[in-house]
User: Fold this.
Amino acid sequence: MVTAFRSRLKVEGEAVTLLEGNTPLIDCPRLAAWACPGGTLLVKYEGLNPTGSFKDRGMTAAITQAAHDGSRTVICASTGNTAASAAAYAARAGLRCVVLIPEGKVAMGKLAGSIAYGAQVVQIDGSFDDGLRLVREISDKAPITLVNSVNPARVEGQKTAAFEVNDALGQAPDWLCLPVGNAGNISAYWLGFVQDALERGFGTPQLLGGQAAGSAPIVLGHVVEEPETLATAIRIGNPARWFQAKEALADSDGQLWRVSDTEIMEAYGQLSRLEGVFCEPSSAAGVAALRKSVLNGEVEPEGKTFVAVLTGHGLKDPDAAIAGQTDSIAVLAPTYDAIMGVIE
Ligand SMILES: *Cc1c(COP(=O)(O)O)cnc(C)c1O
Assistant:
């Protein structure tokens, strides 16, 4: 937990930390010209957290509280990043960690993390939503602590990102754009902004969320039984914090967009090619939603400040980057002429 914010979070115990948070807010003028012309666009690069995603902000808090409460084992369902984060912080605290992941739907960098940090990885022949139902039941019946974002400490820790955005800008942005999966993050940001408005007098932004078209239960208003998207971190058909997300969107006069995988991958490509900021596909859903809202005339970007949250690092999902490379990479003779032949 960011030490400066500790007293403002409802979490007990000696901090189990890997010095998460304090991520950069990067001004992206070339991306702004593409997504929100006339506006200022900054990205909160959450992929620079210790395990490569924003999940570390909530996990430091959840594991701190679990250790304080005397828990020995923690469990979560995950599309990958929660698992890697839980595994790391559990290792740090000397707790046992069990993670349930949907078979075949977890990006390589995330699985690698969970294994490296020594978690017990259980694959299920089911979706994230099935996994969440199971870990809820297990933690109800057995002395095992649930560390998904239904755990209130998770949301406490994740609020710190809103505080950091306000600190960096000296005020709240006009809009905060982010992907929405299980809806823990959008709920946490909103709580953080509201708390900062009360305690430090900052304003609150309007929230702009992006859900993947094949996995957009909140936009559609019904559970999606078989969610599908290559943005696997937001492949969730029945979000745990659905109600809070709806409230946050309403209270902030926000918007929630359904963006196709093509739109997500376009934003993903633009982030790395225009700005040198590499995020995982899901992370680009907030930027894709911003562009879509502007193109549709629902957001007027002129003179406005937008912060887009890039939730996870691009190296989490190397396959996604490589799949976008249509031509195979040529192998040439190691000579000046051969190399210059393809450069010119
Ligand atoms: C978890 C996650 C999300 C979705 O966040 P929710 O709190 O589930 O809405 C988005 N992007 C990445 C990279 C994630 O790991």
Summary: The chain has two domains: 3-52+154-322, 55-151. The radius of gyration is 20 Å. The chain has a mean pLDDT of 95. The pocket of pyridoxal-5'-phosphate is lined by residues 53, 55, 81, 149, 179-185, 233-234, 280, 282-283, 311-312 (CB under 6 Å).
